[in-house]
Amino acid sequence: MSDLFTRLATRDVNALAGRRAGQPVSHGEWLARVRAWAALGRATSATHIALYLDDSLEFGAALAGAWLSGKTVWMPADTLPANCAALAGEAGAFWGEFPASCAPAFPAGDDDGHIDWTAPAPDFPAMVVYTSGSTGAPTPIRKHLSQLTGEIEALDTQFGAQLGDAEILATVSHQHIYGLLFRVLWPLTAGRAIHAERHEYPETLARALAERPCVLLGSPAHLKRLPEHLDWQGARGRLRAVFSSGGMLEADASIHARALLGQAPIEVYGSSETGGIGWRQRGQQPDEGWSPLPFVHWRAGDDGLLEIDSVQAGPSGWQTLSDRVEALDSGRFLLRGRADRIVKIEEKRVSLDAVEAALVAGGLVREARVLALTAGHQESRQRQSLAAFVVLTEEGAALLEAGGKNAMNTRLRTLLASSVETVALPRRWRYLARLPVNAQGKTTQALLLALLEPAQDARPRRPALRVLEQDPARVLLELTVPPDLLYFDGHFSVAPVLPGVVQVDWAIAYGRQYLGLGGAFAGINALKFQQMIRPGHPVQLELVHDTNKNSLNFRYFSDAGAHASGRILLET
User: Fold this and answer.
1) Which of 46, 34, 36 lies closest to 108, judged by CA?
2) Please, how many CA atoms are within 13 Å of residue 521, restricted to the half-sphere of its CB?
3) 132 and 272 in contact (C-beta within 8 Å)?
4) pLDDT of 203-218, one tens digit each?
5) In the 8-state DSSP scheme, what is residue 101?
6) Residue by residue, what is the 3-state secondary structure of 121-177?
7) Sheet with strand 48-52: strands edge to edge
8) Residue 299 in contact with residue 261, Cβ under 8 Å?
9) What is the DSSP letter of 315?
10) 148 backbone dihedrals φ, ψ, rounded to 5°
11) Which CATH class is domain 464-570?
12) Contacts of 12 (CB under 8 A, 6+ apart)
């Protein structure tokens, strides 16, 4: 990726770097932000910094500035308190949109000074990324600059000509290796325009895809939920490619996306540990096989597990994955499930993949995820059992409605009995409208296990709060909304958004608490919602009591601008 630094330093300052809120951002403007972050890096004694920013253009500038100032970047998937606490033991500084308790740093402003564009050495410890958590707790993975270089070279060799000068739109976050490569590093190297915002809603996505030649970066969770009622005709004429990664895309989802967008998604297979490994585009081959990416060598080990050797996988030679593999013609391969999804229950070997496949094959289940749970048993021994998380088909949903959960549990256990040992039948069932996903479109173990919490939901209903200013008739609060807030349920699965009714309720509650307001709610005037409030991003809430009108004026705002405001009327 040394070529990245040369290209960034010599690119025309009038060239298009990307778009923010639909407005063009020039390369010169973007370079000023790189210089600003590099100046912050030179003033920061820590060699390891944690970086979190929602804006992809700003994130790219901060990343380049960090590397040019010799920093190793730790890239968390979110800013949950537990992750911030873990990062505090590794990173000496926090850059970007972290909670105030982390003392996050930002550049004071743009910088017009000199910057040394000398590229770091290939073995420079450029980054620490985290595994997705889909098969366990997220694990930090260290990446040398040469590994990221290899990723970009392989992607551009395979797909660069097809993409041309298309602009990059995404429904996935860049805070994971897939989004990082496809949404930031590869476009920066190739000179493709980056859209700063993530398209979280299909309505805005459909409009954006129709505006100019573009590439869509999606995930299986996003692509399979593209609504058919929207007009995708404009997208069909503009899209150069659709990519999907972060999990396996079901055949039906690929057909669905192709029908709406005009082409089947290009699926990219890999992992945080090994980088990109292979790709496929359904319809090109008569089977479900994968072609290796350029410069990737693979083989099946003696135990049938996939082994990889590539620059992006690192300098340690052949690495063994947990994926079982079968060789096909022309150097391609089939994936046959994960070895680490075979568990022992009562001394019986059970494939979680096979249980999920059997559930779907029965016709009542559209999607299923099965986890092995360990619970305390007699005499301090540990016993495993299975929990099934199920999205039903229309037929299955009708049966659930008619017969109830216990009857559906029995029906599905009977369906599985012909192919699964009795001791391995799931004992706990959760019926969902859809599987939960994070910002990367991944269904993680943590998200699923949270659904098994006791019925009395212990998730927080209020934000973390700090009083900034207080007078008899006015108070200024800083609120940080926790990502596991109860009220995010249904708002929305792709990206949590704080409902407006909750914002109003909090304004009333804190008005009563800090300003001593009485009187029942009598109405609301001048209510406006300008920007969404997201988890982990501090916002300020100003409350002013108008004693003459016995009303409470509130406004939510942050560095991003106004979020919401209104005037609450109270009975005298």
Assistant:
1) 36
2) 12
3) yes
4) 889 999 999 999 999 9
5) G
6) CCCCEEEEEECCCCCCCCCEEEEEHHHHHHHHHHHHHHHHHHHCCCEEEECCCCCCH
7) 93-96, 48-52, 72-74, 125-130, 140-144
8) no
9) T
10) -70, -35
11) alpha beta
12) 27
Tokens 């192709």: give the residue. Answer: 258
Q: How far, in Å, CA of 437 to CA of 495, rounded?
A: 9
Distance CA 283, CA 143 (A): 34
Q: Do domains 2-338 and 346-450 have the same CATH topology?
A: no
Q: Which residues pair with 465 in a beta bridge?
A: 479
Dump pLDDT digits (tens) for 409-451: 999 999 898 887 787 789 899 999 888 877 667 788 878 887 8
Rounded distance between C-alpha atoms, residue 458 and residue 182, angstroms: 38
What ranges do the domains of the chain cover?
A: 2-338, 346-450, 464-570
DSSP 339: G
The angle subtended at Cα 60 by Cα 57 and Cα 63, nearest 5°, is: 150
Sign of CA dihedral 175, 179, 182, 187: negative
d(C-alpha 329, C-alpha 220), whole Å:
27
What's the confidence (pLDDT) of residue 121? 92
In CATH terms, the fold of domain 2-338 is Rossmann fold (3.40.50)
Architecture of domain 346-450: 2-Layer Sandwich (3.30)
Which residues lie closer than 8 Å to 255 by C-beta, 6 or more apart? 264, 282
What pTM was computed for the model? 0.69
The verdict on whether omega for the bond into residue 554 sits within 30 degrees of 0, i.e. cis, is no
Cβ-based burial of 469 (10 A; exposed 0-12, middle 13-18, buried ≥19): exposed
Q: Would you give the end-to-end CA distance of the chain in angstroms?
A: 67
Structure tokens at 308: 């990889």
Q: Specify the DSSP element, H or E, that contains 94.
A: strand 93-96
Q: Would you call 50 helix, strand, or coil by DSSP?
A: strand
